[in-house]
Write a structure and sequence with these properties.
The protein is of the alpha+beta class. The protein has two domains: 36-202, no CATH class; 243-293, Beta-lactamase Inhibitory Protein, Chain:B, domain 1, CATH 3.30.1450.10. 26% of the residues lie in helices and 26% in strands. The chain has eight helices and 15 strands. It has helices at residues 11-26, 36-43, 100-103, 160-163, 189-199, 213-232, 237-240, 251-258, and strands at residues 48-52, 55-60, 65-67, 73-74, 84-88, 91-94, 130-131, 137-146, 151-158, 172-178, 200-202, 263-267, 270-275, 280-285, 288-292. A seven-stranded mixed sheet has the order 6-5-10-9-8-3-11. It has a four-stranded antiparallel sheet with strand order 12-13-14-15, with helices on one face. β5 and β6 form a beta hairpin. The longest helix is centred in the last third of the chain and has 20 residues, at 213-232.
Amino acid sequence: MRQRFRTFVPTGLIGTAVILAMLTAALPAQAQAPTLGEQLAAQYKVAKMGSDSSGTQIVEEGTVLAIQKGGIVGTPYKSITTRTATFQDGTVHASDPGNSKAAGIGGKLCGLTHKCPTTPDAAKDENATKLFKVGDKVYATKIDVKPDKDQVVLAIVACDTCNKTDPPTYNKANVVFQFAKGSLASTPASTIEDTIGQLFTISDNNSQDQGGDQQQGNNQQQGQGQGQGQGQGGGGGQQQQTQTVQMGMTPDQVTAALGNPDQQFNIGPKQIFVYKTAGVKVTFFGGKVVDVQ
């Protein structure tokens, strides 16, 4: 007669397996890398707008951006119309000036087809349009990433206190940064920021600054002087460093490897260290290196 054998598993092993499964399920999910939208929001702090009996106001200032190329047309913030410009391949493509609904009365563009009004009533004209000039300061009020269209859209508003516009109009516009089809998802945030930087550079100024670009130039000269002084001071720490910067390093670790940066930008959870002498820019997000250029 054939004997039947039964396999017995010790109850202790079963209990251990159950406990391990429960502990594994309870472990927190691994932190995900920041999205492109989150990294851009950290780089460009958006301004918040509001209004009261006196009119439109900026209730929370954001990162001041300086326009580097002409072609962006704005309308007063209270206007129901928002003009859109597209930036692609290094060129600004403005919305069709002939579109009377988008451009305002008769499709006329202030600064393009007729002289800009200078009276206080111009600030009250919702149909007025304004051609932003190179050097004008603006804030971003919204950042929208559209992977399906390979677009990054910045809504901007004029920093009238920076531009000394009186009375203020808070001209607004949308700027679409168009990337090659299917490329946005695989493009690093630093590359996206470099593209945006061709049109909008982060200004050292804020609304209280009086020095404007002169102050920025002074800062650059000071940085160059420091770099020269370090080079003449006996070999300097930065040029002799052979340590490398790796992804995930902390600011303290980078400083230990490269020394103190020539410039440092703190924008929310994002930090940028700039080493002018070495030509290196290190970007941190959440206290960890996410990009080195």
